[in-house]
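hi! just following up on the protien thing from before. the input was this:
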Amino acid sequence: MPRRRHRPPDRTPPGRARRGAGRRAQPDLGPAGAGDADLADPPARPLLPRAAGHRAGAVRRQPGRHRALLWESGDRDPFATPPPAAWPRIVGTLLRQPGLPPLERTAAALPLLALDAPHAHSTDAAHRRECAARLLRETAALLCGVRPDRQPIHRLMARSWRPGDPALEELVRAALVLCADHELNASAFATRVAASTGAGLHAAACAGLAALSGPQHGGATARAHALIQQALQQPRPAEYVRERLRRGDQLPGFGHPLYPEGDPRAALLLRMLGEVRPRPAGMARLQHLVAAANDGCGRPPSLDFALAAIGSLYGLDAGAALSLFAAGRMAGWLAHALEQQDGGSLIRPRANYAGARPQRQG
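and the predicted 3d structure came back as:
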């Protein structure tokens, strides 16, 4: 099918949220303006909600297929090699520091892990995917403050928060799949730019984490968590929403510019959460909050709200929602980085000078 060019963030027409690391995304480095990235078979704008809805529907039908689609690892399982049994001493010291938020702890540890990572600078495709698999496991463990092991990362994360809860494990698995990729967003673009310079996967992932930390990206989960916590403490959540709207306050976690009819990722997670109902009274209040927001401003909940809702009803802090987002998106960042490395071209956008012109002398 014809390939459509996607430009850097401010000019990016959204496309489908799936790419294969085996099909190359070649940045256009021609004289007209380097930095335009051709993603693997991206379609037109209206297909992004459809693609996200397809992925949401496939979460239960084909739970293990998402990694094969993102990384195109073929018959060789990059997760077959077990992770190390213990952290390097310097990383272990870092994990023992009190008060470090999950994202900051992870961003500080990844460059240290790169120093001794096997295949960190290999050009072999299988080696790169093995490095990505180990990095994905280590990221999930760092976000939860535990040691990595051979169990699937959704199980590691869920058991670190609430051991012996299969329902939470299923929710976490679904959330990780739905967070994995969302086309050329800010963190994915930052990851691709870093990977295009020849930086290793650890460095490219750090670029993605840095972008995700911004309040306009991953930080939205913390605002949604705060809104839910405040609403759950109110005797009438619907009245609380109406009062916020009367004051002109925003409702964090509601509405998404790419999904005017509703975010299918959030719809699935909230439906699954409603089936589990870890706190029936809290779930009822949460549903009243969603209904009130829809009645008051016509905005359905976004993925940020759904992640925060999972954390809130399971008694987790705001960092859990962002950790879910980061661990899930890491799989997509690594797919971007692998694809960019396969292409081997530097992303180098051009800039137009818009400042004052220098005055001629004399």
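The longest strand covers residues 27-28.
The beta strands are 27-28, 36-37.
cheers
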